[in-house]
């Protein structure tokens, strides 16, 4: 599990003072399919006659889904969206409670039969949470383990938190004072079921709200399992040992050695007497906890064992892993048979009557025959072999040189996913992104609308990238990753506000063509238009008209002082969403962000209800969307000199340095030169530093004046009305009229010094 920085990693390490990030997640397919590998499965049997069975899937795309199962049909009846990173495990407990854990360091609790609402979030872990275990006959007990080496045992029935959060119904901010996510601890959702094991550095200690901590792991925990009664807990990870705990107290019972590599999966029998373990050493081991020793080892796989499931009587084990093969092994006779082979490594197994659901690193889930109630039927079909007891590389002779033949060629049923994105390239115009998915399909996205605008099919990604190259320079105003199998677009202040375009280049009708459009501001307005409508309905026009953000309490966590804000004098104080920034309501993106309290959260933009405020959103997002105010930005100007070409008879128009917006087009420079030549203004109409004086009759200033190095006055006559013909050159290269100063500097000038432009009169045109 590689570590990638994400909006959701709320590690207990000291956080930097960077402002909170705002991310939006795009998916061009329908929302009823996963778009990344499946990490976990759970089956819920129908509680009454005629009701459907349900399958729950958790994915690397950050969501869980509930599938209503029919004879040969599975329909997605709910998406559970709140995690901001990979969902690593999920368990069902108590009939209607779903518990999930994620690389975002949280454990979340859901009503599994709801429409996908998270009822509480537990933030006790300091690193990725990798695994969960639930006691079948004790619905109160759930254990969680993660890369921080922590194992926590939770009593779910003890949670009495009031509903008070807009993104999740309740939060346990146990680590809030440590990780800097806020200091409000009133929403804590857990009380301890034992007080003998306290967790250091947790602010909830004083209130007594801590789960039991099973202390002993010095390294990452990858696997947990418990018996039906919840009286025994086993754990394993990178230390290569199986640890056995009493979950009621968190005390260590024993440590079992035998594996030579990471332990990736564990399975206890119902009584807690026997334990199966699967490891990266390719071995499956059967442990007798009463005797505290390994009684059998099974060499059936050629690579890491990642998933185990047993028949109801614990007589046979199904196993899958990195070798993409699913085996059934008789624990008594050691006879093993290859059930099927997959294209991708097998990550999780779940038995369902006489079938078995198989999840892989692909986004689809398959159902295969299992004969769990009568596994002998499978062995009667032939093809079995005797499992060795040495690691497979040394026991290959046990197969007598022949590879086993799979019993089944095709699954009995499949729930398809959509291909995950594996490659992306941000194009130079900074509005388009080229992507390639696992099937090799190449698509072009428009980031400011969140949609695919071209599907090129299976073509060369590199050739298409070259084909789409444009000589244009726009500042990098966002970053992108495809960690969730889809595009995640990250905005951070103040960098995100550095990119501007003219309205004419965006084809925005009804706006003057020289109006500057800030791409991040308009994108944020498009993303939060639904939220703003809901907020107005809830709070009236005051929600956006004045400087207050009605939230039930003052914005004490941050004062929006005007001294920190740069007002944009060209911005109208409106909330119109222009067409290039309209996001689809049919397949809306999700946003991932955090405010002053509660930690990161994720929600569809159409699910925002207007109650979210500074506790949920970064202050700079609210200030931009509600008040059209942008934070101070880096210099958006470009300084340059304008001289006649060498040998040209053209008059010298200016001696000093000029300054203009980076997005200014060369045809504006042409206009400037012609205007100076035609009007032949005396020298006293110039400022001392050579900036064109903004007080000439008949002129209109379309850009705000700049204090300092002189403003380049660009509100001149349209070029189509001009009579003389002027060419602008840089490095002896004639510049196209539509090229911007930033593009000239990046692709033609290519030097750190101030840009030098030359002009000449072209005769005979």
Chain-wise SSE layout:
Elements (H helix, E strand, L loop, with lengths): L21 E5 L11 E7 L8 E7 L3 E7 L4 E8 L5 E7 L3 E6 L4 E5 L6 E5 L6 E7 L2 E9 L4 E5 L15 E2 L3 H4 L32 E2 L7 E6 L6 E5 L3 E6 L4 E7 L5 E6 L5 E6 L4 E5 L4 E6 L6 E6 L5 E6 L3 E6 L4 E7 L4 E7 L2 E6 L4 E5 L6 H4 L5 E2 L26 E3 L5 E6 L5 E6 L4 E5 L4 E7 L3 H7 L11 E3 L5 E5 L8 E3 L13 E3 H9 L1 H11 L2 H4 L20 E2 L22 E4 L7 E4 L14 H9 L1 E2 L6 E8 L13 E4 L4 H14 L46 E5 L2 E2 L6 H9 L5 E7 L4
Parallel strand pairs: 9-13, 44-48
Antiparallel strand pairs: 1-37, 1-41, 2-3, 3-4, 4-5, 6-7, 7-8, 8-9, 10-11, 11-12, 12-14, 15-16, 16-17, 17-18, 19-20, 20-21, 21-22, 23-24, 24-25, 25-26, 26-30, 27-28, 28-29, 29-31, 32-33, 33-34, 34-35, 36-37, 38-39, 40-43, 41-42, 44-45, 46-47, 46-48
């Amino acid at each position: 599990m590689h570590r990638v920085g994400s909006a959701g990693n709320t590690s207990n390490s000291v956080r930097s003072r960077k402002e909170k990030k705002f991310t939006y997640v795009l998916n061009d397919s329908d929302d009823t399919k996963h778009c990344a590998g499946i990490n976990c499965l759970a089956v819920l049997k129908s509680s009454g006659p005629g009701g459907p069975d349900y399958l729950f899937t958790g994915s690397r795309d950050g969501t869980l889904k509930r599938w209503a199962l029919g004879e040969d049909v599975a329909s997605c009846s709910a998406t559970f969206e709140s995690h901001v990173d990979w969902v690593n495990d999920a368990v069902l407990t108590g009939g209607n409670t779903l518990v999930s854990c994620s690389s975002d360091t949280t454990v979340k609790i859901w009503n599994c039969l709801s429409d996908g609402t998270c009822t509480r979030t537990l933030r006790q872990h300091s690193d990725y949470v990798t695994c969960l275990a639930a006691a079948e006959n004790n619905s109160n007990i759930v254990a969680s383990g993660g890369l921080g080496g922590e194992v926590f045992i939770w009593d779910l029935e003890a949670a009495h938190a009031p509903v008070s959060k807009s993104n999740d119904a309740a939060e346990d901010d146990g680590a809030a004072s440590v990780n800097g996510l806020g200091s409000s601890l009133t929403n804590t959702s857990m009380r301890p079921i034992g007080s003998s094991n306290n967790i250091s550095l947790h602010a909830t200690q004083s209130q007594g709200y801590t789960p039991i901590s099973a202390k002993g792991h010095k390294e990452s925990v990858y696997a947990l399992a418990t018996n039906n009664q919840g009286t025994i807990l086993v754990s394993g990870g990178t230390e290569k040992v199986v640890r056995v705990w009493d979950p009621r107290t968190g005390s260590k019972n024993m440590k079992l050695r035998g594996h030579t590599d990471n332990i990736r999966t564990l399975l206890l029998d119902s009584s807690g007497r026997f334990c199966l373990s699967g490891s990266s050493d390719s071995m499956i081991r059967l442990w007798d906890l009463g005797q505290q020793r390994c009684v059998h080892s099974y060499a059936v796989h050629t690579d890491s064992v990642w998933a185990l499931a047993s028949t109801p009587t614990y007589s046979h084990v199904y196993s899958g892993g990195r070798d993409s093969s699913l085996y059934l092994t008789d624990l008594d006779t050691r006879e093993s048979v290859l059930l099927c082979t997959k294209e991708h490594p097998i990550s999780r197994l779940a038995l369902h009557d006489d079938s078995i659901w198989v999840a892989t690193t692909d986004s689809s889930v398959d159902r295969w025959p299992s004969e769990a109630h009568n596994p002998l039927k499978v062995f009667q079909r032939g093809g079995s072999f005797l499992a060795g007891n040495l690691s497979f590389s040394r026991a290959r002779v046990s197969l007598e040189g022949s590879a086993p033949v799979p019993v089944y060629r095709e699954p009995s049923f499949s729930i398809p996913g959509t291909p995950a994105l594996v490659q992306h390239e941000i194009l130079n115009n900074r509005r388009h992104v080229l992507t390639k998915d696992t099937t090799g399909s190449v698509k072009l996205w428009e980031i400011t609308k969140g949609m695919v605008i071209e599907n090129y099919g299976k073509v060369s990604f590199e050739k298409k990238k070259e084909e789409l190259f444009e000589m244009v320079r726009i500042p990098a105003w966002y970053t992108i990753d495809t960690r969730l199998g889809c595009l995640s677009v990250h905005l951070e202040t103040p960098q995100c506000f550095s990119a501007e375009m003219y309205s004419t280049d965006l084809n925005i009708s009804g706006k003057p063509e020289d109006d500057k459009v800030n791409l991040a501001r308009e994108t944020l307005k498009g993303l939060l238009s639904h939220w703003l409508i809901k907020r107005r309905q809830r709070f009236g026009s005051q929600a956006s008209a004045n400087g207050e953000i009605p939230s039930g309490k003052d914005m004490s966590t941050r004062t929006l002082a005007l001294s920190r804000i740069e007002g944009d004098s060209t911005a109208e104080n409106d909330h119109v969403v222009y067409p290039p920034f309209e996001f689809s309501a049919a397949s809306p993106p999700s946003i991932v962000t955090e405010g002053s309290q509660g930690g990161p959260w994720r929600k569809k933009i159409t699910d925002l209800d207007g109650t979210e405020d500074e506790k949920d959103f970064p202050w700079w997002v609210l200030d931009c969307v509600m008040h059209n105010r942008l934070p101070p930005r880096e210099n958006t100007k470009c300084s340059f000199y304008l001289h006649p070409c060498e040998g040209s008879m053209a008059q010298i128009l200016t001696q000093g340095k000029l300054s203009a917006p980076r997005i200014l087009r060369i045809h504006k420079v042409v206009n400037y030169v012609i205007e100076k030549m035609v009007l032949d203004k005396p020298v006293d109409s110039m400022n001392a530093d050579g900036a064109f004086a903004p007080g000439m009759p008949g002129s209109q200033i379309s850009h705000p004046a700049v204090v300092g190095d002189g403003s380049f006055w660009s509100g001149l006559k349209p070029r189509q009305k001009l009579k003389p013909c002027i060419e602008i050159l840089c490095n002896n290269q004639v510049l196209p009229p539509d090229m911007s100063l930033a593009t000239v500097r990046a692709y033609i000038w290519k030097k750190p010094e101030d840009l030098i432009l030359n002009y000449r009169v072209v005769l005979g045109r």
